[in-house]
Write a structure and sequence with these properties.
Blueprint (H helix, E strand, L loop, with lengths): L1 H6 L11 H5 L7 H8 L9 H13 L4 E6 L3 E2 L2 E2 L3 E10 L5 E4 L14 E6 H5 L2 E2 L21 E2 L2 H6 L4 E11 L2 E9 L6 E7 L6 H19 L7 E7 L3 H9 L7 E7 L8 E4 L6 H11 L5 E4 L8 H4 L8 E5 L21 H20 L2 E4 L13 H9 L6 H10 L1 E5 H8 L3 H13 L3 E3 L3
Parallel strand pairs: 7-8, 11-12, 11-13, 13-16, 14-15
Antiparallel strand pairs: 1-10, 2-3, 4-5, 4-9, 6-9, 10-12, 14-16, 17-18, 17-19
Helix pairs in contact: 3-7, 7-11, 9-11, 12-15, 13-15, 14-15
Bound molecules: zinc ion.
């Protein structure tokens, strides 16, 4: 009878973390196809490119809420900016030959460029041209969000070929009152507490920097929507960097206490080693990520917090103080493709996206299953054979479950203070096996949960 009870463990609340399930943790969403689909959309801080991106995501995630916050809305020390939209932009020779066309690559125009139409001398135009002399065939990515300006970005090699005295310049854009748009999706949990997953959606045709985070977050959201609920809810935010996170925080200030762990995801589609930037004060999410990466077989590096990077610095600002770290593979500013046209769909691979998906899935599963227990009767070791636990272990082991040693660790360390992650770390055992051992002990009524 006990054996049957033990085998049923795979279907209980903690089943998502057992070994058998984890082996099959592949996303049902085709992340590479979604990435290619989103790549050409003209995203920026605001505007129709962001809306089109969120609308495309909604096709896979019908419960995604698309929210609009009006220009001028006060959000902490900031104001929601005017909305920027662009329809076309070109640089032509005076006889009408197109040399630079926004339609070919949306990196060609500096984000938030004001409208322009006219003939400019090469010298005048030069003040509005951005190139990368060290990477002469790459187009740089530039923005001018908070200073009214206009500009073009082009390969340095092309600019050197452009030696006419004057050019026809046209930017058909609007900068007007409108809204800031972001996406929010919530997977409810069994408690009021939740995990925050945040990605930025403000970069145009850049694949690793923004799109990799977007598609992995979308795949995770789809995965968890199709699973039975867990202890913690999971909130997914798809928002423009900085002003988007500040806007969301300002609009949800009364509910922030619900967020107990969080991750910003960015540049997770390249095949380089993982990098994780710790939270400001240190937190369980830091230990969880380090634990998962250490047992993943992937190369990785842990980095200390610094107040530069992505929205972890908004979530971790002193008046907010949420425990949100940042998971990356390539680190912003340190790889040659960063913020150039070389960060394209060939720089990101389906293999890397799938690896990143699995790592984050394990981190989320760990956080949702990291409970503290105490022994019901902690006097000496319980008699395992009488409770059918040896047979249960033999059964679990085939699916990569708990060993006898794992069971002994759990029975020794469940003192009402140490969490399962603490026990996994101390015993140098993957969390999933400690979780499986705890499930056996729970079913045999040897341990009981301690509520904090
Ligand atoms: Zn960036």
């Amino acid at each position: 009878m006990m054996l049957d009870g033990v085998f049923k463990m795979a279907d209980n609340d903690h089943g998502a973390d057992n070994g058998a399930d984890r082996g099959g943790a592949a996303p049902s969403l085709d992340m590479m196809a979604l990435l290619r689909n989103l790549f050409p959309l003209p995203r920026s801080l605001t505007g129709d490119g962001v809306r089109a991106t969120l609308t495309a995501l909604k096709a896979d995630l019908p419960s995604l809420e698309i929210r609009e916050v009006s220009t001028g809305t006060r959000v902490f020390d900031w104001e929601v900016p005017r909305e920027w939209n662009i329809r076309a932009a070109t640089i032509k020779t005076l006889d009408g030959r197109v040399l630079v066309d926004f339609a070919d690559n949306n990196l060609h125009v500096v984000g938030y460029s004001i409208p322009v139409s006219g003939t400019f001398s090469r010298e005048e135009l030069a003040r509005h041209i951005h190139t990368l002399p060290d990477q002469p065939d790459a187009i740089p990515y530039r923005t001018s969000y908070y200073a009214e300006n206009w500009g073009f970005c082009l390969p340095h090699s092309l600019w050197q070929e452009m030696q006419d005295e004057s050019y026809l310049v046209e930017i058909d854009s609007t900068l007007a009152d409108g809204a800031l748009t972001y996406g929010e999706l919530f997977v409810p949990g069994d408690s009021n507490e939740e995990i925050l997953i945040s990605v930025h959606i403000c970069h145009p045709s850049l694949a690793n920097d923004n799109l990799s985070g977007i598609v992995v977050a979308a795949a995770l959201a789809q995965h968890y929507l199709s699973q039975p609920s867990g202890r913690l809810g999971i909130r997914f935010l798809f928002l423009p960097a900085t002003i988007g996170a500040i806007t969301w925080l300002a609009e949800n200030e009364d509910e922030l206490h619900r967020v107990v762990h969080g991750l910003v995801l960015t540049c997770i589609g390249d095949e380089g080693p993982f990098h994780y930037k710790r939270t400001v004060e240190g937190a369980v999410v830091d230990l969880a990520v380090e634990h998962v990466l250490a047992h993943s077989g992937h190369a990785f590096e842990m980095m200390e917090f610094s107040p530069y990077g992505y929205d972890e610095r908004q979530y971790g600002s002193p008046g907010i103080a949420l425990a949100v770290g940042c998971l990356m593979r390539a680190v912003h500013g340190t790889f040659p493709e960063y913020h150039t046209s070389l960060d394209n769909c060939d720089f990101v691979t389906g293999t890397a996206l799938a690896q990143s998906f699995r790592v984050i899935l394990e981190v989320i599963d760990l956080l949702r299953n990291n409970v503290t227990y105490r022994r019901v009767d902690g006097r000496g070791e319980p008699q395992l054979g009488r409770r059918g636990l040896y047979r249960a272990i033999a059964g679990q082991k085939e699916g990569g479950g708990a060993s006898q040693m794992d069971l002994l660790w759990v029975l020794n360390q469940c003192d009402g203070q140490r969490s399962l992650l603490d026990i996994a770390e101390r015993s140098r055992t993957p969390f999933s096996r400690i979780r499986a051992a705890a499930d056996l002990c729970l079913d045999a009524e040897l341990i009981t949960e301690v509520r904090s």
